[in-house]
Amino acid sequence: MTPNVLEKALRDVVIANRILAHEGVVDAYGHVSVRHPLDPTRYLLSRSRAPELVERGDIVEFDLEGKSVGGDTRAPYLERFIHGAIYEARPDVQAVVHAHAEAVLPFTISATPLRPVVHMASFIGARIPVWDIRDNFGDTNLLVVNMAQGRDLARGLGGERVALMRGHGFVAAGRSLPEAIRIGVYMPVNARVLLDALRLGEVTALSRGEIEAHASMKPDDPAMWRAWEYWAVRAGCGDLLSART
Ligand SMILES: [Zn+2]
Predict the structure, then answer these.
(1) What is the pLDDT of residues 6-51, one digit of tens each?
(2) Which structural domain range is residue 225 located in?
(3) Is 245 within the bounds of a domain?
(4) Which among 12, 23, 138, 214 has most CB atoms closer than 10 A?
(5) By C-alpha distance, which of 123, 127, 99 is closest to 178?
(6) What separation in Å is there between the alpha carbon of 101 and the centre of ligand 1?
(7) 79 labelled catalytic
């Protein structure tokens, strides 16, 4: 039974990569991980590879410090520290997405806050902090390349679902992999709608009550599965889907 749980998690990470690529959330860069289903001090993440190309054999097990378990010597993502630092700080988080989606970037560099404005994006939460690596690390290449930077980002995220990264992208933390993917997919959608609406004039965002009403959906809700299955099939990996139990 136990190996099946791990095997499913490995397949799900492949599906998650393909979905994010197919939905245009990531390109050659960006990544997604899931916490190890049997060991909360580890997580599963691809080796350094474009998400669209990720296969089962590319998934590597890391400890929370970003060291590969089992001596895998293939090149890892430079920014893998994002994942371990968030899992370390947030026991409730089971999956993490990091992406540079273009539609979100204006909100990482302007004073206009990104707010959820459409109901499908209520999952991103009422408060979306903007983390600036320069605050504590000065001039860098903006990448999160060590645990100190990863932990600083995790502090910036706090207890929220999403944090923007100034001039860089965003990070999304989900209670399940389908939930993290849902947040990742709807982040750019919501940003595009908000940008369009701002051109028209005053904008009405979701209220805190509206956000909470929708965000109370359980991470294993059938509606969550429906989107996961749909996106997986669209991304060409319906054969990797496990029967829902
Ligand atoms: Zn990045």
Answers:
(1) 999 999 999 999 999 999 999 999 999 999 999 999 999 999 999 9
(2) 2-240
(3) no
(4) 12
(5) 123
(6) 10
(7) yes
Tell me how far the alpha carbon of residue 188 lies from the centroid of ligand 1, in angstroms. 15
Residues, CB-to-ion distance under 5 Å, ligand 1: 79
Are the CB atoms for 5 and 38 separated by under 8 Å? yes
**Residue found by looking up tokens 């990070």 in the block:** 171
- The amino acid present at 148, given as its one-letter code, is A
Ligand 1 centre and the CA of 100: distance in Å?
6
Q: Which residue, chain included where needed, has tokens 């969550």? A: 224
Cα separation of 198 and 191, whole Å? Answer: 10
Interstrand relation of 31-35 and 169-174 (parallel, antiparallel or unpaired): unpaired
| Neighbouring residues of 112: CB distance < 8 A, sequence distance ≥ 6 | 106, 198
Residue 219 falls within a domain, yes or no? yes
Give 201: exposed, middle or buried? Use CB within 10 Å, 0-12, 13-18, 19+: exposed
- Global pTM reads 0.95
Give per-residue pLDDT as tens, 141-190. Answer: 999 999 999 999 999 999 999 999 999 999 999 999 999 999 999 999 99
Beta strands in 115-167 (DSSP E): 130-131, 162-165
Domains of the chain: total: 1
* CATH number, domain containing residue 138: 3.40.225.10
Please tell me which residue in 79, 88, 102, 229 is annotated as part of the active site.
Answer: 79
Of 172, 154, 164, 102, the closest CA to residue 130 belongs to 164
Q: What share of the chain is helix, strand, coil (3-state, %, to 5)?
A: 45, 15, 40
CA dihedral sign of residues 230, 231, 232, 238: positive
Q: Does residue 31 lie within any of the structural domains? A: yes
Ligand 1 centroid to 211 CA: how many Å?
27
